[in-house]
Structure formats: structure tokens, C-alpha cells
Amino acid sequence: EVQLVESGGGMVQPGGSLRLSCAASGFTFSNYDMRWVRQAPGKGPEWVSTIKASGGSRSYADSVSGRFIISRDNTKNTLYLQMNSLQYEDTALYYCAVGGWRGQGTQVTVSS
């Protein structure tokens, strides 16, 4: 059974940083591209970033490029998202996904 468990969310002031983690199990993590997706209140899901299985290639939405960094540790079956220079518009439920599976998500709230 595929399981994806996110952690690391919370409340942060504008300009602050957070690091999200996604612990994966139930599949061969190192064989799959992974992505982060977010959903703000009242809006549809927004793709944030994807990292290839080997970790050698990464892509970002324009809205987060230059501020967020996706990474993975295939020895720990864990996906990360380092979020810097957070803005009010980054407030959302963030979840990791692989194929058609997704986790429950972790809430990120940017507020002064």
C-alpha cells in the first residue's frame, strides 16, 4: 500500500522559511518521480515542483521558482521542499504525490 506522510508545516511570518518532508512507503521510492502540489482555500490544486527519480532534474512553478527547492533522499525514502522567502500567497495545504497517489498534506500558513 502506497503511503505518503507529510510533515513540517506551520505558521510563519512573511519572508520566513519552512522545510517540508514527505515520508514514502509501499513502493520503490527511488524508481519514481515525485512532486509537491498545493491547494489554497477555495482554489484548485496547483503543481509546485517535480523531481526526477534520480534527483538529477527538478522543475518548478513560476510562482515558486527561485524561492523553493525540492530534494530527495532515496536512502531514506523521503522527499523534501525547502521554502524560503514565504509570501502570503504561499498559504495552502501542501502535499506530496506520486502517480495517482497523494498524502494527506501539511498546512502552511503565512501570516504576520
Describe this structure in words.
The chain has no helices and eleven strands. With 112 residues, the chain is an all-beta fold. The mean pLDDT is 97. Strands 2, 4, 5, 6, 9, 10 and 11 form a seven-stranded mixed beta sheet that branches. The chain is globular and about 40 Å long. Helix content is 0%, strand content 52%. The chain has strands spanning 3-7, 10-12, 18-25, 34-39, 45-51, 58-60, 68-73, 78-83, 92-98, 101-102, 106-110.
Structure in a nutshell:
With 112 residues, the chain is an all-beta fold. Helices cover 0% and strands 52% of the residues.
What are its keywords?
single chain, 112 residues, mainly beta, seven-stranded mixed sheet, four-stranded antiparallel sheet
How are the SSEs ordered, and which strands pair?
Blueprint: E1 3-7, E2 10-12, E3 18-25, E4 34-39, E5 45-51, E6 58-60, E7 68-73, E8 78-83, E9 92-98, E10 101-102, E11 106-110
Computed Rg: 13 Å
Average residue-wise pLDDT:
97
Q: SSE order in H/E notation?
A: EEEEEEEEEEE
Instruction: Count every beta strand, where a strand is a DSSP E run of 2 or more residues.
Output: 11
Which spans have pLDDT < 50 for at least 5 consecutive residues? Answer: none
Structural class: mainly beta
Instruction: Provide a count of the helices.
Output: 0
Helix content: under 10%
Largest sheet features: 7 strands, mixed
